[in-house]
What we know:
Layout: E1 6-13, E2 20-24, E3 35-36, E4 39-41, H1 48-60, E5 63-76, E6 81-93, E7 104-107, H2 120-129
Parallel strand pairs: 1-6
Antiparallel strand pairs: 1-4, 2-3, 2-7, 5-6
Domain Nudix hydrolase: 3-129
Keywords: DNA damage, DNA repair, DNA replication, Hydrolase, Magnesium, Metal-binding, Mutator protein
Cofactor: Mg(2+)
Amino acid sequence: MSASPVNVAVGILMKPNGDVLLAQRPEGKPYAGYWEFPGGKVEAGEAILDALKREFMEELGVQIINAEAWCGVEHIYPHAHVRLHFYISRDWSGEPQSLEGQAFAWQGTVAVEPLLPATIPLLNFIAQLR
Length: 130
């Protein structure tokens, strides 16, 4: 395992009613079947917001118009040490589509499970943002 964590851009799409979009990790990835906020690895030399916009376009066909940095969380999984950079977006265009075959769901009170471990502590904070 490398000493420096992998930077990951994570986006929380939030509707005016406070619902947020969660996606299920597809087969073949670590923690397949677990639910998380969509996002992905930041490439070398890429700005985190640019990575977020790229990942949302690749995975969901959604164009993020505006997103604000929210918080950062470091988490050590058995397979990786990650630094998650969370952004909240209330401004995007397009309806999410399952471009990688992943399930996704708009959630008010989050009811899907299992949730990715790094996601769980954030749900209480998100509930307060509504």
